[in-house]
Amino acid sequence: MKFALVHIADIHYKKNEPEGVSKILNAFLDDLKFQKQKLANYDVFLSITGDIVNAGNDLDSYNSIFEELDCELNNIGLTKDFRMIVPGNHDLQNLKKLEKQ
Questions:
Q1: Which of 67, 40, 50, 57 is nearest to 97 (CA)?
Q2: 88 three-state secondary structure
Q3: In whole angstroms, what is the distance from residue 26 CA to residue 8 CA?
Q4: Distance between CA 7 and CA 48 in Å, rounded?
Q5: pLDDT tens column, 51-67
Q6: 74 half-sphere exposure, CB direction, 13 A CA radius
Q7: Separation of alpha carbons 11 and 22, rounded Å
Q8: What are phi and psi of 55, to 5 degrees?
Q9: Is the dihedral of CA 4, 9, 13, 19 positive or negative?
Q10: Is 60 exceeded by the pLDDT of residue 97?
Q11: Pairing, β 42-50 against β 2-9
Q12: 6 φ/ψ sector (left φ>0, alpha ψ -120 to 50, else beta)
């Protein structure tokens, strides 16, 4: 079996942000779908690293991006078994706040 690794970093997602992060993510997902079809004989893994959201205390953005990504990645055929997420410093700020609650 052959393997392919796709890596995306520092998304800095912010829900309803006019700068168009969702447009960029949609373009990425469209390309990922195309590449996964081209690599039909490969196990494709996705690594998302760095700052997933723009502000670590923005739980709405976390919920929004993970709901959006989970649905889209499942549709592409990249189930959770083929994904790895490594938080960045913006994300860790949120984890520290949640731990205190």
A1: 57
A2: coil
A3: 13
A4: 6
A5: 888 877 778 888 888 88
A6: 7
A7: 10
A8: -125, 125
A9: negative
A10: no
A11: parallel
A12: beta
